[in-house]
C-alpha cells in the first residue's frame, strides 16, 4: 500500500512532464493542445516502434489508428445529401444541399484534405464535418477529393489525383449534373491539401484547353516549399504542436519517397547551399528577407550554407519541382492565379510559406486576402468536434467560410 502512494505521484509527475510544453501565452486552449500533442506523440512513437520491427509501415498504422478512433464519433448530416463517386478514376465525396425553389445553379468548392499527403481522409468525421458545414453555410456543392496516400503512392501521384478529379468536375456536363454554376467554383485545401490545391490551381491556369476555371482559391495554412527549413516561422515554432519542424521534414521525405538519413541535411538547408547550382535560379523567389513583414522576421537570420550537398537534389529532384513546391513558381504563372484567400497561424512552422505566397501573388497583380491569427496553431480548423474541439477551430473556420460566402 505504501508503495502505491509513492508510485502514483511518480506516475503523475512523469505524465505531467511528458504532456507539458512551454507554449506562447497567446495560444488558445493551451492545456488542451498539450494533451492533444502528447497523445499524438505517443501514438506516433508506437507506430515507429511497429515500423522498426518491420511489422508494418508507420504511416499505415498511424492512419489505421486515426480512422479507428474516428469511427467513435458521430456527425449529423440530416440536411445534406452525401454521396461517394469516382471522378476520372479518383474517389470523391460529394456534399449537396437541398435545392431551393427559386434557385437554378449553386456555387461549389473542390476541397482537398490535409494530413502530410499520408494521413486522414475525405471520409473521416473531421473533414466530413467541415465539408458538411461548408455545404450548409454556403448552400454550395462541396467535392472532397480522396486522393491516394503515402506510402501507397508518392509524389507526383497525389498531385495527379487531385488534378484529374478537379478537371473532371470542371467539365460542363458534370457541373450540369450537380447543378453547379461554372462561374462560381473555388478550389481549396488545408496544409498538404493546400499544397495540392495551389499546385492544381497553377496547372489549371496554364491549361489552354480548359474552358472553365476556378473563380477563387482558398488555402488554409498551406505547405508550399521545401527550399528553406529555417524561415522565421520554422525557427520560432520548431517544437510547436501539432507540427514540429522535424515532423514536417519527415512528411516531405515520405512524400518524395526519399531517404530519412537526409533529414538533418535538409534541416540545415544543405540541399540549397550556395554551391548547389540547381537551386540558384529559385533563390530569389523565396527570399523571406524581402517577402516577409518585419513583424514576422523579428530578429531571425537566414540560414544559407556556403557549401552543401548537391547530391540531395540529384537524388530528390522533386524538392525543386513546382508541382510539389508551388511557392517556387515563376511570376508568369502567378499572374494567372484567381482571387486568393490564405489563412495563416502565428504558432505554425508553415506561417511564412503562406505569407510569402500571398506577397508573391500580390506582387504579380493577384487580389489576395491574408487572414492571419495570432493565437492559433497548425491544423486547428478541423478540430471542432469533441474531444478535439478548440475555440481556434471555430474561429478560423468561421472566418474562412465568411470569406467564401462574400467572394464566391
Describe the structure.
The chain is built from 17 helices and ten strands. The protein has helices at residues 2-19, 30-52, 58-70, 125-138, 157-169, 172-177, 192-205, 232-236, 245-255, 263-267, 277-280, 288-291, 294-297, 310-315, 331-334, 351-363, 391-407, and strands at residues 81-87, 90-96, 106-112, 140-146, 180-190, 216-220, 339-347, 368-377, 384-385, 388-389. Helix 4 runs parallel beside helix 17 and helix 5 (157-169) crosses helix 7. It has a domain at 67-225 and 321-406: 3-Layer(aba) Sandwich (Rossmann fold). By secondary structure, it is an alpha/beta fold. Strand 5, helix 7 (192-205) and strand 6 (216-220) form a beta-alpha-beta unit. It is found in: Cell membrane; Microsome. This is Neutral cholesterol ester hydrolase 1.
Characteristics:
AB_hydrolase_3, eight-stranded mixed β-sheet, 408 residues, two-stranded antiparallel sheet, transmembrane helix, alpha/beta, 43% helix, signal-anchor, Rossmann fold, microsome, globular
- Helix vs. strand class: alpha/beta
Number of helices: 17
Name the strands of the widest sheet in spatial order: 1-2-4-3-5-6-7-8
Instruction: Give the low-pLDDT segments.
Output: 8-15
- As a percent range, the share of helical residues equals 40-55%
Number of strands: 10
- The CATH architecture assignment of the domain at 67-225 and 321-406 turns out to be 3-Layer(aba) Sandwich
- How far apart are the termini? 66 Å
Radius of gyration: 21 Å
GO molecular function: acetylalkylglycerol acetylhydrolase activity
Protein name: Neutral cholesterol ester hydrolase 1
Subcellular location: Cell membrane; Microsome
EC number: 3.1.1.71
Amino acid at each position: 500500500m505504501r508503495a502505491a502512494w509513492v508510485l502514483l505521484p511518480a506516475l503523475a509527475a512523469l505524465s505531467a512532464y511528458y504532456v507539458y510544453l512551454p507554449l506562447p501565452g497567446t495560444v488558445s486552449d493551451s492545456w488542451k493542445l498539450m494533451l492533444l500533442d502528447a497523445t499524438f506523440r505517443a501514438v506516433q512513437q508506437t507506430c515507429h516502434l511497429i515500423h522498426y520491427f518491420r511489422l508494418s509501415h508507420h504511416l499505415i498504422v498511424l492512419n489505421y489508428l486515426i480512422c479507428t478512433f474516428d469511427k467513435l464519433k458521430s456527425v449529423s448530416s440530416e440536411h445534406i445529401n452525401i454521396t461517394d463517386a469516382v471522378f476520372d478514376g479518383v474517389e470523391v465525396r460529394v456534399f449537396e444541399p437541398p435545392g431551393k425553389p427559386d434557385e437554378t445553379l449553386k456555387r461549389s468548392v473542390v476541397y482537398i484534405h490535409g494530413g502530410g499527403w499520408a494521413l486522414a481522409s475525405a471520409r473521416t468525421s473531421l473533414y466530413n464535418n467541415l465539408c458538411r458545414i461548408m455545404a450548409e453555410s454556403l448552400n454550395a456543392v462541396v467535392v472532397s477529393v480522396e486522393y491516394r496516400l503515402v506510402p501507397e503512392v508518392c509524389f507526383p501521384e497525389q498531385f495527379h489525383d487531385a488534378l484529374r478529379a478537379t478537371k473532371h468536375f470542371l467539365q460542363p456536363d458534370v457541373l450540369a449534373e450537380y447543378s453547379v454554376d461554372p462561374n462560381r467554383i473555388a478550389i481549396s485545401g488545408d496544409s498538404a491539401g493546400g499544397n495540392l490545391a495551389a499546385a492544381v490551381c497553377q496547372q489549371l491556369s496554364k491549361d489552354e484547353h480548359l474552358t472553365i476555371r476556378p473563380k477563387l482559391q482558398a488555402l488554409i495554412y498551406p505547405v508550399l516549399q521545401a527550399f528553406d527549413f529555417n524561415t522565421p516561422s520554422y525557427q520560432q515554432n520548431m517544437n510547436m504542436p501539432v507540427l514540429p519542424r522535424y515532423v514536417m521534414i519527415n512528411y516531405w521525405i515520405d512524400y518524395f519517397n526519399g531517404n530519412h538519413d537526409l533529414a538533418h541535411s535538409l534541416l540545415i538547408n544543405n540541399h540549397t547551399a550556395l554551391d548547389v547550382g540547381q537551386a540558384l535560379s529559385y533563390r530569389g523567389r523565396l527570399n523571406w528577407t524581402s517577402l516577409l513583414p518585419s513583424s514576422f522576421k523579428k530578429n531571425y537570420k537566414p540560414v544559407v550554407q556556403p557549401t552543401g550537398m548537391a547530391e540531395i537534389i540529384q537524388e530528390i529532384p522533386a524538392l525543386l519541382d513546382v508541382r510539389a513546391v508551388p511557392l517556387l513558381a515563376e511570376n508568369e504563372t502567378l499572374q494567372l492565379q484567381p482571387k486568393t484567400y490564405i489563412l495563416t497561424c502565428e504558432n505554425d512552422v508553415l506561417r511564412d510559406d503562406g505569407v510569402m505566397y500571398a506577397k508573391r501573388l500580390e506582387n504579380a497583380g493577384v487580389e489576395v486576402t491574408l487572414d492571419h491569427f495570432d493565437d492559433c496553431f497548425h491544423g486547428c480548423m478541423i478540430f471542432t468536434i469533441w474531444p478535439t474541439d478548440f475555440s481556434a477551430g471555430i474561429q478560423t473556420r468561421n472566418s474562412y467560410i465568411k470569406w467564401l460566402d462574400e467572394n464566391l
